[in-house]
């Protein structure tokens, strides 16, 4: 269990994390989403005691991480896979971790096999690809068989097999009753693996709900309807206060409404319908809708060249 | 899945952290290169000094001279070894996993300091012994090897390298940069103590006299005007203690690597 309460981090004038509170429950994969610079990594670093919060607390299994005597047996984390000494072998890296927490050395070989590093574990890390470094970081996170796991962008650099492996691993860890917090920019990935999403923007909490709730737009459903008398239907829907817009010749889309509402209106007006459905949002749509105003670093579309 | 980790004593955590730090030190080539450099300097110069000893001298010199004299240049390789134990973790970002494995920062600082000092000092004593033996063997009958003088010489080398490595470790924690800490060590241990008195101003000589390098030089080669054993030990250990204190404050209070 991870409990974050009023967590705030300020760097000079920059407020990186602003009064953030959320829980990460055991037995679920919790996705941690937000645009670049939203404060996800800073939050994870504060949970792990790497950065000092300006105010607020973060507890892991009811205790501050920095007070743990054998942290690898309680919490496994993958933050930056590049944060390793390149001149050391992968196996040595894991042996140091095991020694520091009183973990038997045979467990090092077990996790090396588990993450598929194999013989590469005896090579120096400077020769590793990003994907291999990710696997090494995941091996270190799993070393103490912990109840709580934090992964910051774990699928970065992994090939398709690696991505599928991570997907299965996260699911399996959560199904074993562990607490799993995963940050990722790959929203489609989150859609497939996360049971719950914590969405932040500019360091503030934007949403904390199940993935299903967020996909449904947090209660703001959309409905698509098709009718040969769409003009009459549009007027009727607007008369009843529903925000309907035309999306095609015979097609309308209604914000903040349900298929039931639209069906009732059509029936009252005796308008035949050819299609009526709730619109399933992609997580991308939901995410952009939630974080649209919270993007800190946004690019701009190239300006079309003026014809000369 | 494991049960909740039980509380274990700070002493046991410290012992485990020391074991991890020891493995960390010798699992990269840099540590072995610095040790090899110190060995070449101390044993090499000791052998050359022994072979050039005058066999016709009325009174034989002790071969232990080689230990202290060769430790003067070789200490810098050992200080660099101690320093990189700390700074390489910041240079590579390795401090992030390190603090995930040992989040009790004071304990990590103590273990890292103990391991770096033990490695540097232990190597210095072994190499000082090897240097004296090399000089003695190369000199034939021209040098003596009295064991009471040996204890003095090895003790002096141990004191100087222990103090210097503590200073290097403290500066490493404080500056978090290999280049910055190395420059600081060289300035304090070598450049300023020898350069400041050259200008001829009394206040510059007074400043030089309180620098750790002056203390180390007096203890090892004994040719630093105005220094005594007491002032040398005070300067060396005072700087070492101060650097360790400041380094600990930065480690304990600041973010891991920002």
Please identify the structural class of chain B as seen in this structure: mainly alpha
Q: Pick out the low-confidence regions of chain A.
A: 303-308
Gross morphology of chain A = elongated
Q: From the alpha-carbon coordinates, what is the Rg of chain B to the nearest angstrom?
A: 20 Å
Keywords (chain A): ATP-binding, Nucleotide-binding, Transport
Domain ABC transporter (chain A): 2-227
InterPro entries (chain A): AAA+_ATPase (IPR003593), ABC_transporter-like_ATP-bd (IPR003439), ABC_transporter-like_CS (IPR017871), P-loop_NTPase (IPR027417)
Family (chain A): Belongs to the ABC transporter superfamily.
Give a description of the structure:
Chain A: This is ABC-2 type transport system ATP-binding protein. Chain A: Belongs to the ABC transporter superfamily. Chain A: It comes from Blastococcus haudaquaticus. Chain A: Pfam families: ABC_tran (PF00005). Chain A: GO terms for molecular function: ATP binding; ATP hydrolysis activity. The complex is a heterodimer of chains A (308) and B (258). Chain A has 308 residues and is of the alpha/beta class. Chain A folds into 2 domains: 2-215, 3-Layer(aba) Sandwich (Rossmann fold); 222-278, 2-Layer Sandwich (Phenylalanyl-tRNA Synthetase, Chain B, domain 1), CATH 3.30.56. Chain A has helices at residues 40-47, 71-74, 90-100, 106-115, 130-142, 160-175, 187-193, 211-215, 230-239, 259-269, 283-291, and strands at 2-11, 14-24, 29-33, 55-60, 75-78, 148-152, 179-183, 196-201, 204-210, 222-226, 243-246, 251-255, 275-278. Chain A starts with a strand and ends in a 17-residue tail after the last helix. The relative contact order of chain A is 0.14. Residues 303-308 of chain A have low confidence and may be disordered. Chain B has 258 residues and is mainly α. Chain B contains 10 helices and 2 strands, in the order ααβαααβααααα. In chain B, helix 3 (65-92) packs antiparallel against helix 9. Chain B is globular. In chain B, 53% of the residues are buried.
């Amino acid at each position: 269990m991870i409990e974050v309460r009023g967590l705030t981090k300020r760097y000079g004038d920059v407020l990186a994390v602003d009064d953030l509170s959320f829980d990460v429950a055991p037995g679920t994969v919790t996705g941690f989403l937000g645009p670049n610079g939203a404060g996800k990594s800073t939050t994870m670093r504060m949970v792990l005691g790497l950065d000092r919060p300006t105010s607020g607390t973060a507890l892991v299994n009811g205790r501050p991480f920095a007070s743990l005597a054998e942290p690898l047996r309680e919490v496994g984390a993958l933050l930056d896979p590049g944060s390793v000494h390149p001149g050391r072998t992968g196996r040595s890296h894991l042996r140091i971790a095991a020694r520091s927490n009183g973990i038997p050395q045979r467990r090092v070989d077990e996790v090396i096999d588990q993450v598929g590093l194999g013989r590469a574990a005896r090579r120096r890390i400077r020769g590793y690809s990003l994907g291999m470094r990710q696997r090494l970081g995941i091996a270190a996170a799993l070393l103490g068989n912990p109840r709580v796991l934090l992964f910051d962008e774990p699928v970065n650099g992994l090939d398709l097999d690696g991505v599928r492996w991570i997907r299965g691993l996260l699911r399996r860890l959560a199904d074993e009753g562990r607490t799993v917090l995963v940050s990722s920019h790959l929203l489609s990935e989150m859609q497939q693996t996360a049971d719950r999403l914590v969405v932040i923007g500019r360091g503030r909490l934007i949403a904390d709900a199940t993935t299903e709730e967020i996909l449904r737009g947090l209660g703001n459903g959309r409905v698509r309807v098709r009718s040969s008398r769409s003009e009459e239907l549009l007027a009727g829907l607007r008369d009843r206060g529903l925000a309907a817009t035309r999306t095609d010749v015979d097609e309308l889309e209604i914000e903040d409404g349900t298929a039931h509402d639209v069906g009732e209106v059509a029936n009252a007006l005796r308008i035949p319908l050819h299609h009526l459905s709730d619109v399933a949002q992609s997580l991308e749509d939901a995410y952009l809708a939630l974080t649209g105003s919270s993007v800190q670093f946004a690019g701009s579309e190239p300006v079309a060249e003026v014809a000369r | 899945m494991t049960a909740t980790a039980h509380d274990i004593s700070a002493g046991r955590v410290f012992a485990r952290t020391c074991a991890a730090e020891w493995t960390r030190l010798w699992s990269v080539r840099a540590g072995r290169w610095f040790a090899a450099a110190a060995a070449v300097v101390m044993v090499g110069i000791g052998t050359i000094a022994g072979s050039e000893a005058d066999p016709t001298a009325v009174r034989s010199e002790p071969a232990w001279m080689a230990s202290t004299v060769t430790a003067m240049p070789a200490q810098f390789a050992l200080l660099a070894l101690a320093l990189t134990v700390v700074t390489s973790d910041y240079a590579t970002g390795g401090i992030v996993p390190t603090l995930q494995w040992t989040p009790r920062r004071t304990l990590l600082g103590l273990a890292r300091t103990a391991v770096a000092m033990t490695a540097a000092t232990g190597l210095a004593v072994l190499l000082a012994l090897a240097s004296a033996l090399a000089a003695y063997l190369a000199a034939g009958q021209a040098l003596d090897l009295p064991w009471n003088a040996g204890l003095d010489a090895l003790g002096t080398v141990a004191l100087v390298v222990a103090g210097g490595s503590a200073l290097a470790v403290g500066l490493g924690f404080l500056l978090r940069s290999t280049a910055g800490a190395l420059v600081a060590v060289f300035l304090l241990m070598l450049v300023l103590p020898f350069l400041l008195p050259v200008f001829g101003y009394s206040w510059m000589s007074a400043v030089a006299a309180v620098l750790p390098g002056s203390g180390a030089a007096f203890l090892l080669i004994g040719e630093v005007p105005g220094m005594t054993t007491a002032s040398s030990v005070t300067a060396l250990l005072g700087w070492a203690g101060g650097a360790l204190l400041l380094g600990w404050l930065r480690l304990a209070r600041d973010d891991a690597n920002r």
